[in-house]
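Appendix B. Extra example for self-study. Work through it before the problem class; the solution is given directly after the inputs so you can check yourself.
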Amino acid sequence: MGRKVLLVTTDQQRYDTLGCNGGALARTPVVDALASAGIRYERAHPQSVVCMPSRSTIVTGQYPSTHGVWMNGVPLPADAPSVAAVLQRVGYRTALVGKAHFEPFLDPFARFPENSLAGSGQETILEPWADGTIGPHRGFEHLEFATHGAAGPLHYARWLVEHHPEAVGMYYAPLDGSLEVNAAGGGDTAAPQVKHNPIPRDWYHTDWVADRTIAWLDSLDADADWFCWMSFPDPHHPWDPPASEMHRIDWRDVPLPAAYPESAADRERILDAKPRHWRQWYDGTLVSNYEAPKDWVPATLTADQVREVNARNAIECELIDEALGRVLGHVAARGWDADTDVVFTTDHGELQGDLGLLFKGPYHVDGLMRLPLIWRPAPSANVAPAVVSAPVGLVDLAPTFCAIAGVDAPAWMEGSALPADDADADARGFERVLTEWDSELFGVGVHLRTITRDGWVCTTYAPGTVHDGTEGELYRLDDDPHQFENRWDDPSLRHLRDDLLVDLRANQPAPRSPQLAVEAPV
Amino acid sequence: MSGASVRKEIRIHRRAAEVWDRIADPGVIQDWFPGIVSSTVDGTTRVITLGSGIAMPEEIITQDPVLRRFQYRITVGVFRNHLGTIDVIDLHDETCLVVYSTDADPRTMALVIGAATAEALVELRDQMESTAEIPTQVKGS
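Solution. Structure tokens for the complete assembly:
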């Protein structure tokens, strides 16, 4: 019997939403305890700051340029390599419960298995794998899907319709009548993507994901080795946690984020020093990507709306923490705790009021790039608790799971098993982490490449709709933690900037060719 | 501008008339369009049922065997406007080019339907090229 792996992901969760990372709003004792007993990473970045590319990186261990999911709406090919397939091949039982999003959500033709599986009555389907053999879909022998709310064909939505049909309309509708990201406001402040949700807590998708994870674990033999990806859709917007939980945090008491200058003039001055799409989005003259509501203008965001969004987000983080606690309790009750590795992370961050912005997009700053990442190695492995400050990426997760399982990481994985401490990171060359953005949708193209190294984050832009290819961003992370001061054009830093760009280009994988097609906006 | 236009095309190594015969029959679209599971035709009204279970009524507005153009409009639900156009263009070498255009408002649906039409064209080509002997002069081209 070997070590088991519980991969816990959330969606769009900031680094600073956890108590162990200095967050003071949400109470997250379960994750904090994992961090105390394990390894907490202070500089973990995604390789893309949107869902589909980032999740594809987690499962493949490859950069977006390599796996080919270069923006939301591009499906990960069914025969893409998968760490779940590697583990299943060596005898692991494998499951993914919750939000997958390797394939587009907007799929009325049900062309993609994620959208047709729940109606099929099957736990998975057989597909060709990367090595030409046939196996369960992406290596997962059990799949149960959920996403934000109750719309669509996924398992959670079907469960809610069947068992609690009166609750279906309680959720906020993530998309509007034009199938754009909904800009409608609600709550006390009319903040976008906010709604009073009277759904009982135990019908909410966070608890459903935990319930279904426990049910799958219950189906396993006591001596099974398993890899379970438990994937919570929260705290991604919409911010509509169960109304019964709203008493936890009064938004009126929530402090404004440190990265939210209260003066509009200060916000605009900072934005004006960045490439022009920042200010254009703020002013509502360019919405460069689908993930932000087309009909919402960030300049209209009020301080109270920021407070309410952050309060609701924190409540969702607390519910996740409690749901995780239930699952870990169940793991312990099955006698597995000593042999179970727990990895907690997310796919990307959320601007959440930084610089007067919400949501996400082509903005490579800490709000979107600095992620919570905790690895609590199986206690039986006797790994000392540590805090790692070296840069790591989600691309390193798949090789980590291979190392836990005692199998060699396949050559197609582009990361390395996570370091156990900074000395290990130094010895194994964890010097940099790369993040990429490409989007071309409805006539707007944006292309970024970013390197984070030696305490600097440097982003270069390729030509696009509003960029000519000369733009960039350069921030020093220790004395500019909110990336307010863009030093791209600082002559005294020209040598450093050039050095970072050389390093970026030397390590950035070439884009997949031919480019995979965009099949939907999300 | 809330609408969008998407165009997909494919070359098929079959005569234009043969490909047109397939496309011009509105009641067999489910045989070559993945994601459409059934269709019923009553006059100029066709109702297709998608893989998700959604039933979508359409109005057939052009069925021109001379121009080899088939056009239809989805008339339900989220669509403020829609026009689907399939052109079969004779390349005069016993092959043809099939162009499938989707104009839709909202723009999101143009993207989603357009992507499905790309897959449909591949399926159509594969079926057409496997169901009869390929003309000698275009083999290997």
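Self-check: Residues 4-175+182-425 of chain A form a domain with the Alkaline Phosphatase, subunit A fold (CATH 3.40.720.10). If your reasoning did not lead you there, revisit section 3.
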